[in-house]
């Protein structure tokens, strides 16, 4: 079948099925073949790979994935897209479409069944309303995972990639960088989608660390510290932690900062992942 990355082909199939876009599902379909090629090359898909695609839509990217991968599992929430996918993916016998909500699917069981528990690659043009829960859910679960190559809102991609001292730096940056190495591979303007989103987009590749970059006794506790520090952006780290519901006393926090050679007035947004790990290990004692 001719590429759905060509706008005329997408319009034709949408009209044939009288498809109505559902805003609540974040439906913005890609209509740009060069962006599709860029995503596939950044994802580095080979004939051995099993790929999980989140939200295949009408199958535009799925077709590219099916051409390059051994096997593709595509999870789509909108039941109205399932008959369309039946037609657009008819030529491929290596694609399994599952009509479900990705946040409810047992991905670990899918990976076991389709890839014998070996690491998969995730590729998606994500529905922007659930970007963070999808990514964090994947990282925090036991799903064996090599990389995640995704289209997200530009601003979110920036937040994932930056370090301390910039306005975008925050809990998401630290969470992503604890699990993976982020790399923005393309900026994508609204006119590459149908319908056009109100925001700019970017493709980011998150390559999972083989070994965590820092040694943390209790990662959950470290992330609670991180969230508390960024909840109160303009406050000092001490005040953020004191009001973060963590049950820490001012003395404990000050004592930890002194051990680290930090000033009482230090702000969380200047702390690297290494510093949060150290602080967490000291306070956990
Ligand atoms: N991959 C297609 C493309 O690039 O043209 C569609 C991308 S569109 C931004 C997001 C897709 O995710 C839509 O098809 C939408 O229906 C689907 N989706 C939204 N929420 C979902 C969920 N919770 N689980 C699975 N799919 C979802």
SSE diagram, text form:
Elements: H1 7-16, E1 29-30, H2 33-43, E2 50-54, H3 60-68, E3 71-76, H4 82-88, E4 95-99, H5 107-115, E5 120-125, H6 131-140, E6 145-153, H7 154-161, H8 171-179, E7 180-188, E8 193-194, E9 201-208, H9 219-231, H10 237-242, H11 250-259, H12 273-284
Parallel strand pairs: 2-3, 2-5, 3-4, 5-6
Antiparallel strand pairs: 1-8, 6-9, 7-9
Helix pairs in contact: 6-8, 9-12
The structure holds S-adenosylmethionine.
Residues 25-30, 54-57, 60-61, 75-78, 81, 101-103, 125, 127, 130 line the site of S-adenosylmethionine (SAM).
Biggest sheet strand line-up? 4-3-2-5-6-9-7
Beta-strand percentage? 15-25%
Bound molecules: S-adenosylmethionine
Q: Share of helix among residues?
A: 40-55%
Topology as a string of helices (H) and strands (E) = HEHEHEHEHEHEHHEEEHHHH
pLDDT averaged over residues: 96
Low-confidence stretches: none
Specify the biggest β-sheet. 7 strands, mixed
Tally of individual helices: 12
Number of strands: 9
What class would the helix/strand composition place it in?
alpha/beta
Radius of gyration: 21 Å
Shape: elongated
Q: What is the terminal separation in angstroms?
A: 61 Å
Give an overview in words.
The protein is of the alpha/beta class and 285 residues long. It is 40% helix and 18% strand. The protein is built from twelve helices and nine strands. The strands form two sheets. The chain has a seven-stranded mixed sheet with strand order 4-3-2-5-6-9-7, with helices on both faces. α6 links the parallel β5 (120-125) and β6 (145-153). The longest helix is centred in the C-terminal third of the chain and has 13 residues, at 219-231. The model has no long low-confidence stretch (mean pLDDT 96). The structure holds S-adenosylmethionine. S-adenosylmethionine binds at residues 25-30, 54-57, 60-61, 75-78, 81, 101-103, 125, 127, 130.
């Amino acid at each position: 079948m001719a590429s759905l990355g060509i706008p005329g082909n997408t319009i034709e199939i949408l009209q044939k099925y009288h498809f109505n876009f559902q805003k609540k599902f974040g439906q913005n379909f890609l209509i740009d073949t060069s962006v599709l090629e860029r995503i596939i090359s950044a994802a580095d898909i080979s004939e051995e790979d099993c790929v999980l695609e989140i939200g295949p839509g009408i199958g535009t990217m799925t077709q590219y994935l099916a051409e390059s991968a051994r096997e593709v599992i595509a999870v789509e929430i909108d039941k109205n897209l399932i008959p369309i996918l039946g037609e657009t993916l008819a030529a491929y016998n290596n694609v399994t479409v599952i009509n479900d909500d990705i946040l409810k699917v047992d991905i670990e069981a899918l990976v076991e069944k389709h890839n014998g528990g070996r690491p998969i690659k995730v590729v998606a043009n994500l529905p922007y309303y659930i970007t963070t829960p999808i990514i964090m859910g994947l990282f925090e679960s036991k799903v064996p995972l090599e990389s995640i190559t995704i289209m997200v809102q530009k601003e979110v991609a920036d937040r994932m990639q930056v370090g301390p001292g910039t306005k975008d730096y925050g809990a998401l940056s630290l969470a992503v960088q604890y699990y993976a190495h982020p790399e923005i591979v393309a900026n994508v303007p609204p006119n590459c989608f149908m319908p056009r989103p109100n925001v700019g987009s970017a493709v980011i590749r998150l390559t999972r660390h083989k070994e965590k970059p820092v040694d943390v006794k209790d990662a959950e506790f470290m992330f609670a510290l991180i969230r508390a520090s960024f909840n109160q952006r303009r406050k000092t780290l001490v005040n953020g932690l004191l009001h973060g519901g963590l049950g820490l006393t001012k003395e404990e926090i000050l004592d930890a900062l002194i051990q680290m050679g930090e000033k009482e007035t230090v702000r969380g947004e200047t702390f690297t992942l290494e510093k949060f790990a150290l602080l967490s290990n000291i306070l956990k004692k």
